[in-house]
Amino acid sequence: MTDYVTVDGVAEYYKVSPSTVRNWVNSGQIPSTCYLKLNKTYRFVLADVDKALRGKTQDAVVAVQPDPRQLELDFSPDDDI
């Protein structure tokens, strides 16, 4: 059986405010596959929320490309400057 937690439960787990959790839901960071909604009541599957948030973080790290305007210098400690 799956355990469901409230907005407050998710907020407590991540040490954020309940409004932050609501923002994550509204922005799509927590997809609708991670929770049930009945009227204005949300119940989250914490394991699914964790996977979704970690997946977003990993995707964001992978998506970061180096700035081509930055100069890359390769110095060895043995090189004279």
Total strand segments: 2
What is the N-to-C order of secondary-structure elements (H for helix, E for strand)?
HHEEH
How far apart lie the N and C ends?
Answer: 65 Å
> Helix tally?
3
The assigned structural class equals mainly alpha
Report mean pLDDT, rounded to a whole number.
81
The profile of the biggest β sheet is: 2 strands, antiparallel
**Residue windows where pLDDT falls under 50 for at least 5 positions:** 57-63
Radius of gyration: 20 Å
Give the total of domains. Answer: 1
Q: Which strand order do you get reading across the main beta sheet?
A: 1-2
Q: What form results from the Cα inertia axes?
A: elongated
| Approximate strand percentage | 5-15%
Helix content bin: 40-55%
Oligomer: single chain
Quick tags:
single chain; 81 residues; mainly alpha; two-stranded antiparallel ribbon; elongated
